[in-house]
Amino acid sequence: MDSPSPSHVNWEALDALIIEFIKSENLIEEPPSPPPSPSSYSSSSYQHRLLILQIRRLLQSGHIDSAVDLLRLHAPSVLDDHRLLFRLQKQKFVELLRKGTEESRNSAIDCLRNALAPCALDAYPEAYEEFKHVLLAFIYDKDDQTSPVVNEWSERRLFELAGLMTSVLRAHLHAYDPVFSMAIRYLISIHKGFCFRQGISSPITNLTERLLLEERDLPATPQESLFEAPPFDEVDIQALAHAVELTRQGAVDSLKFAKGDLFQAFQNEICRMRLDITMLDELIREYCVYRGIVNSGGPNASSQGTLLAHEPSVSNQPESESTLSADVSLEVRSGSNKLADTDMDSPGTGDASIQNPEAEERHPFGSAVGSHEDCSTSAMYRHKASKILQRNKNRGICDRNKRKRWKGRHEVQVNASMSEEPQVSEISSAGDASGDKEDTYEMMLAVKELANKGMAAEVVEEINDMDPTFFAENYIFLFQLKRIEFLKLVSVGDYSRALKVASSYLGPLATRDPALLKPLKETLLALLSPNEKFSGESLPFHALSTSLQVAIGRKLGIEEPQLMKIIRATLHTHNEWFKLQMCKDHFEGLLKIDLLKQVDSSLLNDTLSKSLSNDVCSNTCSQGTATSSSKMHDDGSSPSQVSSTGDIAPDEAAILKVMEFLALPRADAIHLLAQYNGNAETVIQQIFA
């Protein structure tokens, strides 16, 4: 696999993943439609994710009975696991004592007699000892930091229990996060690990450290008495362990819980990683506005890059719970065992005991002022924008009315029976973007859409009208556009105009840059096949249109979305990591990472990539990157490498054996085996000698 250069990312595939994400999370306004049937997967998954979030919030705030009521109503079989029931009842006992009133103490005694003690008898072997230990909470104060039950009093236990129940319910209800949400976790995790192991300074650390938190939910574990461990394939165990940073035993337990399903186990583990949902929504909205997926009206998207770049770091403590700051919050009446009104807060609001304490310091989306504001408000750009927009309106290009409107995460009330759609109440936006800024976006998007459709001559016309100096500074784009125009003319038999384009533009540009001579010769070969119909699918218009969009956006003072930088950098390190591992990623198909790399680069040669050298990865991730000299088979299923010593690398069984016994990454196991002629037993003996 070649490393994706700054221009070699399939942005159309990313668009599809983003659209699926914002639809599944109800972040955009959709036209009214009949209520979905109960069997509707998307609706059911969204409802289940809301349910899980409600239960999570209830547990975090100490309202155990309300959480148990919801579990009995929507997932009663989960409570058949007496291990979970015991932990819930033990936490309920502690929370009743925490209130400190005579009534709550009497309730704690009732809980002890009627629920906790019976559960302790058959929950798990250590449960009765834990039961006796928690009784000490009667005589030791919650503020006594030297007491033997200080851990039982710790509010951290609430967050651990909430995380555990989230993991269990997610797997039980198959309510996994959207594919993009899982993919971004996975890519960032690999990016962090790769940069650490290779000693590389990541250019996106400020984003990744705040987006992917260090905290993970506790894993769901199988009931040993109900499901004995089968002989799992060692390939699956090692693939899972190294993909999500588990011990070998942790990978085995995860596979046991998933009943041997590797991909389900992977989804269970990847969803345990915690994201800052507020920040993720901001990144996605910025990207959607930039790409023309949603309307640019509303918060100023161009300024968001500045907002995200200078945002204070997010605390990784579980008490902060920044991942939930934009989601469902619960208000439960004191002393009540029933779920009260449930609402979904706007970003940065909610229960202070659960929210990120720094959330209030964040500005509303788009409240910051972009560093290039003056560019879009000039009279020159306003005049040019009106002309370009009028022409494209006549062409049917860039109709902003056809775009969806971003609504974000709204206040939602979920019916207790889960039979009705959430009732959405509108949240006022942070403010509308100025008309000048919207026009600037429309100019950029118009050029992008024209390029997407292969309308090369029109693209050149619009760009020249917008900025006559653009092609002088970016002549590679002019060459590619005129190349498309030449091929279109040849395909319709207009050879005279085609040759005029070649002699007027392609020839002089190739004279200026000898690297263009080869693609020029290949282009002229089209004259040998005049009957071959020109097909837009034969040329990567989407890749060219995105590269043009980035370059023109910069000219207009529109910053590239931070999400594009994250994807470029993480895809690059994903490739480099699996080159070092000398194997194929088992999970890239599940997360559609392989689609993000499927770019036809026949039109975008190396010189075009060089023209984008200011993009992330061009002089950051690629620097200091250690690449493997190994080559994979076409299917990527097994390595066929040449080691650094020139010998053929060991077979797969030897690699897995060393990985298993020494708990080593694949690359380290291969390097060790290469030193001992591929003999796994010798390697193990030498290590333990």
Automatic annotation (TrEMBL):
<feature type="domain" description="CTLH">
    <location>
        <begin position="440"/>
        <end position="497"/>
    </location>
</feature>
<dbReference type="Pfam" id="PF10607">
    <property type="entry name" value="CTLH"/>
</dbReference>
<dbReference type="InterPro" id="IPR050618">
    <property type="entry name" value="Ubq-SigPath_Reg"/>
</dbReference>
<dbReference type="GO" id="GO:0005737">
    <property type="term" value="C:cytoplasm"/>
</dbReference>
<dbReference type="GO" id="GO:0043161">
    <property type="term" value="P:proteasome-mediated ubiquitin-dependent protein catabolic process"/>
</dbReference>
<dbReference type="GO" id="GO:0005634">
    <property type="term" value="C:nucleus"/>
</dbReference>
<feature type="region of interest" description="Disordered">
    <location>
        <begin position="301"/>
        <end position="376"/>
    </location>
</feature>
<feature type="compositionally biased region" description="Polar residues">
    <location>
        <begin position="313"/>
        <end position="326"/>
    </location>
</feature>
<feature type="domain" description="CTLH">
    <location>
        <begin position="48"/>
        <end position="104"/>
    </location>
</feature>
<protein>
    <submittedName>
        <fullName>CTLH/CRA to LisH motif domain-containing protein</fullName>
    </submittedName>
</protein>
<dbReference type="InterPro" id="IPR006595">
    <property type="entry name" value="CTLH_C"/>
</dbReference>
<dbReference type="InterPro" id="IPR024964">
    <property type="entry name" value="CTLH/CRA"/>
</dbReference>
<feature type="region of interest" description="Disordered">
    <location>
        <begin position="401"/>
        <end position="436"/>
    </location>
</feature>
<feature type="compositionally biased region" description="Polar residues">
    <location>
        <begin position="414"/>
        <end position="428"/>
    </location>
</feature>
<feature type="region of interest" description="Disordered">
    <location>
        <begin position="623"/>
        <end position="645"/>
    </location>
</feature>
